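Example record

Each entry pairs one chain with its bound ligand, zinc ion.
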Amino acid sequence: MIFAKHAKLSTGWASDVRLIVADGRIASVEKNQKPQAEDVIVDTVLPALGNLHSHSFQRAMAGMTEYRMAGKDSFWTWRDLMYRFTANLTPEHVEAIAAFVFLEMQEAGYASVGEFHYLHHQPGGTPYDDLGELSSRIAAAADLTGIGLTHLPVLYTYGGAGQSPLEAGQARFGNSVDRFNELVALAEGAVAQLPDDCRVGIAPHSLRATSPDDLMAALAARTSGPIHLHIAEQPKEVEDIHAWLGARPVEWLLANTAVNEDWCLIHATHMTEIETVNMAKSGVVAGLCPVTEANLGDGPFNGPAYLNAGGVFGVGSDSNVLISLTEELRTLEYSQRLRDIARNVMVVGEGSVGDTLYSGAAKGGAQALGRGTGEISVGGLADLVAINSAAPSLCALRQDQLLDGLVFAAKDDVVTDVWSAGRQAVQSGRHVKRDAITAAYRSAMKSLMASL
Ligand code: ZN
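Structure tokens for the complex follow.
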């Protein structure tokens, strides 16, 4: 049982709310109550966001690629370093890093994660004896931390647009569609050991790392579940796909596949107005990763046109250069303000930008991860976050201003408690297994850095 002085329910703000949680779901919502002896008492409860896009291992190289060397650094030189780094990761490293990254997400206020998992094989590209070894490591990290995992094994077959061969740095990622389907079945087995809110989807990496035939074959093998894909992160990607397939990536995907609510398009950064409107109308989730997109110099999302067309969006921490829910949301808005030389951009008509961003990302994140509606209502998963509205950064705000305060004026340290499908992992702002998971991460990093 949870008692909250303030709660953002599917029906709006309410006071003195008791939530009864059973089997991971919200069994009842009662307003204007008094706390009972057995209740966990919190200040303000919100639907917790799902972090819809993560490559957990990349957290380990945060801060290592911010130094400019001869010429101008670019996304593509960043990727080259990432490939060198991945050559030395062991299964033990992968698990320890993922557990720490999931812990950081939970402490930031995320209840779930979409782990877009493309590191599959041994260095050099030979599969492990268990083809699903590294998927099992991700599942183990989720089990340890209690986060709600949507595991997204990645189909990565080619080195670039036009079915060019994998580069040496990509050998650990590569699979044919047949071997990928085997791997997905093994991942399903590993995730079946986790609580039943956890699930498996698929992630054809991008149009450039698959082919039209392979993409159709991979889609044909799935009857349900989330489908995630990197779509249009960099202008070069758009040019390459256009030269190869005769259409821009979003344009091509919408014309050639049945994109719908099960899909999440990551980095829909470079779109024309028509692509933006058509993508919004498809019901797909736009998977925005504002901190990483800023870090990599990708460019801003076409937010106003997408929102005006009714588009659904969520946020992800992607490269995990910084894991911060508040930074992610405000970077999204600030990227729009800087481009448009305007304020209060990510809102339709009049209203709260913080509410539009937070509640929108809660709904879109839940949709993208197969976790329901992203609202607090009876029957929904108990993915909940509590924040402290008495913190100095929020204490002067009315209830209806709290999400503006959270997004623009607060840091993640206002988060006090987090539940994933009812499993409480964060109490008093700390993950309950913080010390052990952090120690294992430090040890893994020491071993990894010694091997580079
Ligand atoms: Zn990504």
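The two ends are 48 Å apart (CA to CA).
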